[in-house]
């Protein structure tokens, strides 16, 4: 990045938006994919408005400078990790929010946290469902850019299902509006969906119109334990074949033990696996889920209509990744398979862990077939690192062999870049690159990651 470009940016941006102090920039280099080595950006821009983002992209286009969009940096794939000499654009200061209860929509800027959007909707008796476990620390912009999932997707869908409209700044600095505020809209290509999940490679999302729902009734929670994780996987397949719980989460014994070590909650680490299900309200669906897990061989089943107890258990599940990270360096998988193949996937992970003598605690949004085998190792041990990397590849191979995907919600980022081509194949990769070239011909947006 030339001094000339920096000078232009300094003139165009408001005071304090452009940062070159390496101590400050350092805090914006990493996301939460701890095995990804970030570059050193030349500058950080803390944008305050769409106009700021446009100014950055105009200058970057003119000078051929790479730009890395960044939300809250909680990504698990290295998507917002910095690039040498690039400009990192943080949206953390873009925080406008307006809820329109009559239209049941929220118009938001990308820097808001997911939890803040939920809280604002709740003030009107409304609900913004997408709920990544990181909902208290991740931004809505990051959620849109990764098409984030979470716990309630099994019944309520993922981020893209709640997007009515977007404002996006393109690589050349133009701001475009896609979609709008209507529930139905089939005018032209559904371009907003192209940007949702595009991981900062096609444009920077500067505003979104999000669909809200009425608040659901307090949940009833079903807890079930199993002798082993494959039996729990079979129970998930049986439940989802006929029922739609509002959440259906799995933790294996190692994940339960990791959480218990940090926050003891009375979870029994001697069990083989734990299933946590929630249904909306005290309806008969709770009994149906309990019946399913019993028929599938659960060793213990409990049903609670106490919302606080249910929330405590779900909070334990949300803590699993940081708790396992205390055991070593973690390569976080995000594989997803068709529902009937769930037992085969969890069995494959158990076999891969044994084959590579590597610990792989398993958690998952099981009702979606989306699992996070957490390949855990000592990064100071070269042999252990090589075994972990081989295990990481093998889990993705197993998912692909079962008709699945290498990423269900975290995105490709840099961590899974080389696996994407294997999943998509040459023709789809070519189409993907053609889309990228049409929207970002100079290749300045998040270059060198996966497209
Ligand atoms: C403990 C923990 C639990 C998690 N659980 C879940 C989970 O259950 N489900 C789930 O889906 N994820 C989960 N995540 C991953 C992460 O929180 C999500 O991917 C989240 O959507 C990232 O948001 P962010 O604001 O941190 O984005 P960042 O990490 O800053 O960026 C993510 C990607 O989006 C791009 N980007 C960010 N903002 C914009 C923008 N405005 N315009 C264009 N591109 C942009 C970046 O370039 C990058 O490619 C978890 C993470 C942690 C640490």
Q: What are the distinct ligands in this entry?
A: flavin-adenine dinucleotide
* Separation of the first and last Cα atoms: 22 Å
Biggest pleated sheet: 7 strands, antiparallel
- Percent of residues in beta strands? 15-25%
Structural class: alpha+beta
- Individual helix count: 15
> Which regions are unreliable across 5 or more consecutive residues at pLDDT < 50?
none
Keywords:
binds flavin-adenine dinucleotide; alpha+beta; 15 helices; 7-stranded antiparallel sheet; 5-stranded antiparallel sheet
What does this structure look like?
The structure is a single chain. A 7-stranded antiparallel β-sheet has the order 15-12-14-13-17-18-16, sandwiched between helices. Strands 5-6-10-8-9 form a 5-stranded antiparallel β-sheet. A 4-stranded mixed β-sheet has the order 1-2-4-3. Helix 8 crosses helix 10 (284-295), helix 8 packs antiparallel against helix 13 (342-355) and helix 13 packs antiparallel against helix 14 (382-401). The mean pLDDT is 96. The relative contact order is 0.12. It has helices at residues 3-12, 22-26, 50-63, 114-122, 140-146, 153-156, 191-195, 229-242, 253-262, 284-295, 307-318, 320-325, 342-355, 382-401, 417-439, and strands at 18-19, 43-46, 67-70, 87-90, 97-100, 105-108, 126-127, 163-169, 175-179, 204-211, 213-214, 219-226, 247-252, 273-280, 300-304, 329-332, 362-365, 370-377. The chain is an alpha+beta fold. Helix content is 37%, strand content 20%. The radius of gyration is 22 Å and the shape is globular. The longest helix is centred in the last third of the chain and has 23 residues, at 417-439. The two termini are 22 Å apart. Strand 17 (362-365) and strand 18 form a beta hairpin. The chain has 15 helices and 18 strands. Flavin-adenine dinucleotide (FAD) binds next to strand 3, helix 5, strand 10 and helix 12.
